[in-house]
C-alpha cells in the first residue's frame, strides 16, 4: 500500500512539473520580440446575393503575404501581437444569367486580384512542447486597407436564340477596378476576426497557419442589398529575432 501511495505521489509530482513546463507563467524573459513573416495566401468570398445566389460561384485563388510582427510579452506564455503586412489576394467567380424573355444566356467569368495593408492585433498564447519547440495559438481582430484600385478581369460569353430569329454568339473581354462604388465593385476597407496556430523552433524559426473571416460587408452594391464577406488562409514561415 505504501509503495502504491508513493507511486501515485511521484506521478502527481511529475504531472505537475510537466504542466508547469507546458505553461510557463513566469515573468517574460523579453519585453518585446520582433519577427518577420512571408507566405502564400488562399482567398475567397462568402456571399448572399438575392436573385443571383444559385447562379454565382466563387473559387479559391492564391496570392502572397509579407510583413512584420511584434510580441509585447506579458508573461512567457502570453503576449499581445500586433503586426503589419502587405497582402496580395485573389479569387475567381462565375456568374450565369438567363433571360427567358429574349432566349438569351450570358456567362461572366471573372478573375480578381487586389493588394492591401493588413493590420492584425492578436492575443498569442505560447505553450512549451519541448525545450526547443513551442506551440502558439493566436486570436483577435484584423483591419484591412485596400491599396490602389485592384483589378477584376471579366470574360463574357452571350448566346441567344430568340424565336423566329437567327441565333447569335458573342465573346468579349474587359477589365474594371476591384475597389470602387460601382454595382460590381468592392469597398476598400475591411475588418474581421483572425485566428491561427503555429510552431516555433529554437526560439527563432516559425511556421504558421492563420484564417481570416470578414465581418464587414465589402460589396459596393447597395441597391440590390448584396452581401460579400472576405475569407482567407495564410500559410507562412518566419524568423523571430
Mean pLDDT: 90
By DSSP, the count of extended strands is: 9
What percent of residues adopt helix (DSSP H or I)?
Answer: under 10%
Report on the biggest sheet.
Answer: 8 strands, antiparallel, barrel
Q: Low-confidence parts, pLDDT < 50 over ≥5 residues?
A: 4-20
- Ends: how far apart? 53 Å
Q: Report the principal-axis shape.
A: elongated
H/I helix tally: 1
Could you tell me the radius of gyration in angstroms?
Answer: 25 Å
Determine the strand fraction and express it as a percent band.
over 45%
| Lateral strand order in the biggest sheet | 1-2-3-4-5-7-8-9
Order of secondary-structure elements = HEEEEEEEEE
Secondary-structure-based class equals: mainly beta
Written description of the protein model:
The protein is 9% helix and 66% strand. It is mainly beta. The chain has an eight-stranded antiparallel barrel with strand order 1-2-3-4-5-7-8-9. Strand 1 and strand 2 (56-75) form a beta hairpin. The longest helix is centred in the first third of the chain and has 21 residues, at 2-22.
Structure characteristics:
single chain; 241 residues; mainly beta; 8-stranded antiparallel β-barrel; 9 strands; 9% helix; 66% strand
Amino acid at each position: 500500500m505504501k509503495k502504491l501511495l508513493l507511486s501515485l505521489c511521484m506521478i502527481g509530482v511529475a504531472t505537475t512539473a510537466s504542466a508547469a513546463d507546458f505553461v510557463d507563467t513566469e515573468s517574460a524573459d523579453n519585453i518585446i520580440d520582433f519577427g518577420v513573416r512571408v507566405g502564400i495566401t488562399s482567398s475567397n468570398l462568402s456571399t448572399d446575393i438575392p436573385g443571383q445566389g444559385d447562379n454565382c460561384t466563387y473559387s479559391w485563388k492564391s496570392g502572397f503575404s509579407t510583413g512584420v510582427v511584434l510580441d509585447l510579452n506579458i508573461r512567457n506564455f502570453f503576449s499581445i501581437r500586433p503586426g503589419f503586412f502587405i497582402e496580395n489576394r485573389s479569387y475567381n467567380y462565375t456568374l450565369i444569367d438567363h433571360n427567358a424573355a429574349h432566349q438569351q444566356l450570358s456567362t461572366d467569368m471573372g478573375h480578381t486580384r487586389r493588394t492591401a495593408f493588413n493590420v492584425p492585433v492578436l492575443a498569442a498564447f505560447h505553450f512549451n512542447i519541448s525545450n526547443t519547440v513551442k506551440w502558439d495559438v493566436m486570436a483577435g481582430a484584423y483591419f484591412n486597407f485596400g491599396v490602389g484600385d485592384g483589378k477584376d478581369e471579366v470574360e463574357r460569353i452571350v448566346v441567344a436564340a430568340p424565336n423566329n430569329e437567327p441565333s447569335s454568339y458573342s465573346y468579349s473581354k474587359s477589365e474594371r477596378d476591384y475597389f470602387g462604388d460601382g454595382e460590381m465593385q468592392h469597398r476598400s476597407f475591411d475588418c474581421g476576426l483572425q485566428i491561427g496556430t503555429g510552431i516555433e523552433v529554437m526560439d527563432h524559426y516559425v511556421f504558421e497557419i492563420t484564417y481570416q473571416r470578414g465581418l464587414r460587408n465589402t460589396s459596393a452594391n447597395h441597391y440590390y442589398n448584396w452581401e460579400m464577406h472576405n475569407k482567407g488562409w495564410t500559410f507562412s514561415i518566419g524568423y523571430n529575432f
